[in-house]
Amino acid sequence: MSNGTATAITCVSFSFVMIVLLFAGSAKFATAQSNTTKTLGLVIDNKTYPFSYSFTNGGTLNLEPFLNENHALDFNITTSQDTNLVMVFPRQAADALLLEQSPSPIIFLGDINIETNPPTVFQYDCDRTTVSIPVDASWSGQNVLFEWGVPPFGNPNDYHEYNFVHILHLNKTIQAAGKNFTLGITTDSKKCDVSFSQQEKKVHVDIKGRDDLNDTTSGTFTIYIPNTLIGGNYSVLVDGKPGLVDTIRPYTENITDITLSYPKNASGIDIYGTTAIPEFPSELVLTSVASMSVAIVIVLGHRSLASNRSAA
């Protein structure tokens, strides 16, 4: 084979490899782009709230103004395959939509007049509500209504206003000493991140009051604490000062209900107990003691046997 022919083959091979690599890179880029989170404005009673969405397998979403009369989002989806639509609503948008009050979300395909109930997943937190909906490829290009039921309460004219008092009920999980502890929270706070200090016998909660409302001076916070996490006599501080505690009482045999009010500009709640879960579980301590006892017996036995042999 001549040098020229070898050079030509090498160039062709190199070009082919580059094309393959570029194609693979483009495919990865397209996949990444298809899953990119996008932000839209959601119009509710002439006020615009931001919310974000993404599709797990690609797609686009066009949104119409919120339908107040039947608690529904009206949108059009474009997708070429089955996918999952994930929508994240900041707390203000979730409050305005009453998503926290939705016991029965459904999907209604307006164009073909078929009602279906896919396994919609709601994930609640104080600062956001996340809704995940499996989307069928056949929905592409159709008018889709995402509806949910809302129980009657309060003044209907205030349902979609942020000055309506929205109380969120959720659970937080803390891991300590190899165990999971569930703490219930009921609050209007827009933030409720929980942490635990075994050394200080303390549960800390980051909070954020409704500072965007001029007619609200305080918020409400209730926490249900397992006595096996912290117990004994409780004390409560809000931003390092004694909190305005309404109740500290048994909720069940093993759970204490602590309810308090906080100024809307407060940022943290600290709840102290006089007892806390041991750093090492009692069964682990007992197992360790038993293991050490066996080891001591074995060592003493070896020493006794060695002494007897030396004497012989």
Task: Describe, in plain words, how this protein is organized in 3D.
This protein is α+β, with helices and mostly antiparallel strands and 312 residues long. It folds into four domains: 1-34; 35-158, Immunoglobulin-like (Sandwich), CATH 2.60.40; 168-276, Sandwich (Immunoglobulin-like); 282-312. It has helices at 3-34, 91-97, 282-311, and strands at residues 38-44, 47-55, 60-63, 72-78, 83-90, 106-109, 114-116, 121-124, 128-135, 143-147, 168-176, 179-187, 192-197, 202-207, 218-226, 230-231, 235-238, 241-242, 244-250, 255-263, 268-272, 275-276. A five-stranded antiparallel sheet has the order 1-2-5-9-8, with helices on one face. A hairpin with a 3-residue loop joins strand 8 and strand 9 (128-135). The radius of gyration is 30 Å and the shape is elongated. The termini are far apart.
